[in-house]
Design brief:
It is a single chain. The protein is of the alpha/beta class. It has one domain: Maf protein, CATH 3.90.950.10. The protein contains 6 helices and 7 strands. Strands 1, 2, 3, 4, 5, 6 and 7 form a 7-stranded mixed β-sheet that branches. Strand 4 and strand 5 form a beta hairpin. Helix 1 crosses helix 5, helix 1 packs across helix 6 and helix 5 packs across helix 6. The chain binds inosinic acid. The site of inosinic acid (IMP) has 16 residues, from strand 3 and helix 3.
Length: 196
Amino acid sequence: MVKTKLFLITKNKNKYQEASLILKPYRISLEQKPLSKEEIQAESLEKIALHAARKAYVLLRRPLIVDDSGLFVEALRGFPGPYSSYVYKTIGYEGILDLLDDVENRRACFKTALALISPPLEKLFVGETCGVITRKPMGSGGFGFDPIFMPEGYSKTYAQMTTTEKNAVSHRGKAFRLMASWLARRRVYPSNRIRG
Ligand code: IMP
């Protein structure tokens, strides 16, 4: 059976672990390439992901994907959105909780834009999961804003879930599954296939 191999451009080990587990049933194996993701300042995750993927392709010349994700808080008019990485590094999730102190509307959505480059293909897949920002951090699993995000219909934050549970509901799970089924449907497999 032919197995597809893709590079995932990220320095984030958690992202890589989540993504590998999502893709396992599709016989797509991921290899982490911890290159710095060249992040342009843009208002759309799609543009950021595609730009970073194109830059990485120039270096690697191998089929690859870039996942750019962000947290969009309704009461903050979508902030931090595409600036999530900078906001996490500066004020952290505690800063988001502070900004929402006394704010009743806790609604927020997590979004992943996933760019795939395997010439001549360039394709984007988007996954979104909405829920609420909790009043305090809960859980110790996952990464980033996981302790303060509780998806709709659940009574646990992402950080209180196992990786498998998070993947089943998460923005990342949705985007990666879309890509996997698109690749399978089209039978457009990236060129560096490995036997498995
Ligand atoms: P990026 O996709 O690495 O640019 O992520 C932007 C910011 O959102 C980083 O600070 C990540 O830690 C955070 N982030 C990305 N994906 C997730 C997630 O699945 N859960 C929680 N935080 C995330």
